[in-house]
Amino acid sequence: MGSLYIAYHHREKTGTVSYQDLKDGVSITEVMDESTGISSKVVKDWKLHSGGANLRPRIVLLDDNGEIMILASGVEACYFIPIGAVLNVQDGQKVQAGDIITRMPRESVKTRDITGGLPRVIELFEARRPREHAIVSEVDGYVAFSEKDRRGKRSILVKPVDEQTSPVEYLVPRSKHVIVNEGDFVRKGDLLMDGDPDLHDILRVLGLEALAHYMISEIQQVYRLQGVRIDNKHLEVILKQMLQKVEITDPGDTTYLVGESIDRLEVDRENDAMNNSGKRLAKYLPILQGITRASLETNSFISAASFQETTKVLTEAAFCGKEDSLSGLKENVIVGRLIPAGTGLIMSKIKALSLRNDINKYEKYFDIETYDEKLLRSNNYYLHPSEKENVVASHYDQSS
C-alpha cells in the first residue's frame, strides 16, 4: 500500500536547524523507500532503547548567534516530533520561512464507495468511543508542553486565561501528531491532536447542539460522496432517540438517586410537579446512547421486544409485571392501533376528552381520583368508542 505524505511542520522564521534528542539508532533510523529507492530518516519509538527513556525528540531553530529563536507568539521555535515522522532537513541545515521540516506518512489507498464509509456511520450511530480518539480541550487557554513524559505519554498542559484556575493536563501518545504548538491559544472544544473526537467528549464539553451539528455533518459526508441525498430531519429523529436518557446529578426533592439513568420526559414531568409545589428541582446531564442500547432501554417493552433479545425482554416484562402505555409509534403499529401522530394524534386527544367526560358521568360510582389517571395513562383513550364504553362499564360493574 502506498503512502501519501502531508506537511507536518514548517518553519515560521529563517534560521538554522538543530536536532535535540534525535540520535541515530536510538530515536531515528534510516528507512529505504521500496518504490523510489531513496532513504530517509524516520523517528522511531525511543522508549524501546535502553538509553532513550528520558529523550524528548525535537527540532529547534537557532539564530546567527546560536540562540534559540523566539517566535511572534513569544515562545521558542521548538517542534516536538512524533513517532513515525520523516525528517526533511539535516542537522545544521539553513532553512527559510515556510520550508517543510517533517512530514507524516498517511495511507493513500482508501475505499471511497458507500460500503467503505458505512463503518464510520455505524460507529457514530452506536456512539462508540474510537480506539485512539482525538483529545478535546475542555477550557480556553494557552498550550504548554511538560518537561517530562507521564506513563509513557507526552504531557500537554492547557493553562486557562484565568490565572487562578489550575492548568488542565492531557496525556497524548507519543506516536500521535500533536496539532498545536507551545504558546498556541486554544478554545474550548478545539482538538489537540489528529483523529476523530469522542462523541461523549463533544457532548460533555460543547453540549447538545454542537454534538448534533457534528454527527449530522459526519454522517452526511459519507452519503454526499456517493451523491446520496438524505434530509437532516431523518438523522435528527434518530439523534433525538439517542439522547432520550439523562443522568441525575442532583435529585433535589425528588425520589431519584444520584447517577440514576432516567428518561428525559419523565424527569421534566417530575420537575414540573416539584416546581408547582415550590420544591427543589432535580438536575441532570444528557446521556448519549447508541441506537441498539436506546432501543432496548425504551419504556415500551413491546417496542424493545420487536428489536432484539425478544425472549429476554418479554420474560423480564412478565416477571416484573410491566405495563406498556403504548405511547410510541412502533408499539401502536404492532398491536394494530392508530399511531399517536398526524390525524391519529388529534383523534387520540378527542377520544381522551370524550373518555374523561364519560368518567365524570360515572364518578359517583367509584373512586375517580385513582381510576382516572390510571385509565388515561393506560392509553385506553385509543380505544374505539364502543370499546371505551365497555371499559368504563366493566369497571362500574366491578366497583358496584
From TrEMBL:
<dbReference type="Pfam" id="PF04998">
    <property type="entry name" value="RNA_pol_Rpb1_5"/>
</dbReference>
<dbReference type="GO" id="GO:0003677">
    <property type="term" value="F:DNA binding"/>
</dbReference>
<dbReference type="InterPro" id="IPR045867">
    <property type="entry name" value="DNA-dir_RpoC_beta_prime"/>
</dbReference>
<protein>
    <recommendedName>
        <fullName>DNA-directed RNA polymerase</fullName>
        <ecNumber>2.7.7.6</ecNumber>
    </recommendedName>
</protein>
<dbReference type="GO" id="GO:0000428">
    <property type="term" value="C:DNA-directed RNA polymerase complex"/>
</dbReference>
<dbReference type="InterPro" id="IPR007081">
    <property type="entry name" value="RNA_pol_Rpb1_5"/>
</dbReference>
<keyword id="KW-0548">Nucleotidyltransferase</keyword>
<keyword id="KW-0808">Transferase</keyword>
<feature type="domain" description="RNA polymerase Rpb1">
    <location>
        <begin position="172"/>
        <end position="297"/>
    </location>
</feature>
<comment type="function">
    <text>DNA-dependent RNA polymerase catalyzes the transcription of DNA into RNA using the four ribonucleoside triphosphates as substrates.</text>
</comment>
<keyword id="KW-0804">Transcription</keyword>
<dbReference type="GO" id="GO:0006351">
    <property type="term" value="P:DNA-templated transcription"/>
</dbReference>
<dbReference type="GO" id="GO:0003899">
    <property type="term" value="F:DNA-directed RNA polymerase activity"/>
</dbReference>
<keyword id="KW-0240">DNA-directed RNA polymerase</keyword>
